[in-house]
Design goal:
Helix content is 0%, strand content 60%. It is mostly beta strands. The chain folds into 3 domains: 2-42 and 145-165, no CATH class; 47-142, no CATH class; 194-271, no CATH class. Mean pLDDT is 74; it is low at 1-32, 140-151 and 187-192.
Length: 273
């Protein structure tokens, strides 16, 4: 049998430049039988997924926690108000990491190695965080090819010219819509200057100890503790200055504390008359 065939192949995702073609088949006078085997399906290989039950975790607001992801690596997840963010993702040796959704109410990423793939997703739900892990461990399932055989009996000698319309198939890749990334502004905490913080200071004498609280605006007496044989008298307990006397039968200590020239000034006077 002699067959003439003109055909130009198409590239993937493109258009076949040959819209149709003609085939001319010449069949010899001798009757013969031909067999054609049609392949109905190519072998396919897929990964068997292992979906772990979702777990519930907690992450305090304005803090972050580390999580280990199915032996593939670890991630550090932070929380700020109503959003999560992936602070870092560290793969174990031999694995690679990809963060797919870094910021939002749900954040996600994956670790991969050869045919193995582990994906993770963290979703903020009120005050809890739901964690979902899916592992493709590399085990496979295979669909064997199927075939069918068609037997055709040839006719006596005939020359036939046949024009066949060729249908051009164009594969269009699906459009993936990526949600916009939300950038969460960092929280700014305004701390007062050191001089505005309330501090405590203890002043010791042989007659006893006083404790004052102070900042740049005030100074107050907090407590007085005397040594054996001494009594005390509070002349001034604030807010401009503190004055306390410790007195025994033989000696007297006068302690005066005030804020002056941006510092705490302590004066102790001793009198043994």
């Amino acid at each position: 049998m002699a067959t003439g065939l003109a055909l130009t192949g198409e590239s993937e995702g493109g258009t076949n430049p040959v819209a149709n073609f003609a085939t001319t088949t010449t069949v010899a006078t001798t009757v013969s039988t031909t067999s054609t085997t049609l392949i109905l399906a190519e072998p396919t290989t897929t990964l068997a997924p292992a979906v772990y039950p979702a777990t519930i975790e907690t992450i305090a607001d304005q803090s972050r926690r580390a999580f280990f992801i199915s032996g593939a690596g670890s991630v550090v997840i932070g929380r700020l108000a109503g959003s999560l963010w992936i602070f870092e993702a560290t793969p174990n040796p031999g694995w690679t990491s990809e963060i797919t959704t870094p910021v939002g109410r749900t954040v996600a990423g994956e670790f991969s190695r050869d045919s193995a793939l582990v994906t993770y997703a963290f979703t903020l739900d009120g005050d809890i965080v739901r964690v979902q892990i899916v592992e493709l461990d590399g085990s496979t399932t295979t669909t064997a090819p199927q075939s069918a055989t068609q037997t055709t009996a040839a006719s006596p000698a005939t020359t036939t010219a046949t024009t066949l319309a060729t249908t051009t198939t164009t594969t269009v890749a699906p459009t993936t819509t990526v949600a916009p990334t939300t950038t969460v502004p960092p929280t700014t905490t305004t701390r007062p200057d050191d001089e505005d913080k309330v501090k405590l200071e203890a002043i010791d004498t042989e007659g006893g100890t006083i404790v004052v609280s102070y900042n740049s605006e005030f100074i107050n007496l907090e407590s007085v503790d005397t040594e054996p044989g001494f009594d005390y008298n509070v002349d001034n307990d604030g807010p401009n200055k503190v004055v306390v006397d410790f007195e025994s039968d033989d000696v007297k200590y006068e302690v005066e504390v005030e804020w002056s020239d941006d510092e705490l000034v302590v004066s102790i006077q001793y009198d043994n008359d």
